[in-house]
Amino acid sequence: MALKATIYKATIQLSDMDRHYYDTINLTIARHPSETEHRLMVRILAFILNAQEGLQFTKGLSEDDEPEIWLKDYSDVLQLWVELGQIDEKRIKKGCSRAKKMHLYTYGSSADTWWQKIQNKLGGFNNLSITHIDENTCEQLLQLHSRTMDLQCSIDSGQVWLGNNEHTVHIEPEKLLEIK
User: Whose C-alpha in 44, 59, 69, 74 is 20 to 30 A from the C-alpha of 29?
Assistant: First the structure.
């Protein structure tokens, strides 16, 4: 018998001073049985960092042909493709060719090794940005993890503060590559 996804609910009060975007975001998130808590929290963070009207989680790990998060316009054209982890060049090419912009969020300790191997292969991707979330931050994000999350997030000058009533995590996303 196949394991079923675990459903999470999150309400996020977002104040993004960098983009002048302010919203209350209500998310229902399906966590695939193979997805770790670290990855789930990085996925929520990636959603927050790209928050805008129309942004959606996809089937993610359950679907090879879709990113983790995407934004489509009213004509069903992909505007944004968001991936997580240490994906290969083929996957990066797929995202960059299908969407106007692609954002990749790496996390964890092995991301440095991945970056050293792939960075010289990315010169032709003008619509790609890569951001790294360090391992210490991933560990701290677990303090906010629960099946029902009520979170507050402030973003200012590239610094992120994400918290609940008990804990606040200061996040400094490291830009490895920015859209040209």
Answer: 74
Residue 1 domain flag = no
- Each residue of 130-144: pLDDT tens digit? 999 999 999 999 999
CA distance 56 to 84: 15
Round to whole Å and give the CA distance between 25 and 16: 12
Task: At 68, list the tokens.
Answer: 């983790």
Position 48 in a domain: yes
Question: Cα separation of 53 and 72, whole Å?
Answer: 10
pLDDT in tens, 50-104: 999 999 999 866 667 899 999 999 999 999 999 999 999 999 999 999 999 999 9
Q: What CATH number did the domain enclosing 12 receive? A: 3.10.640.10
Structural domain contains residue 129: yes
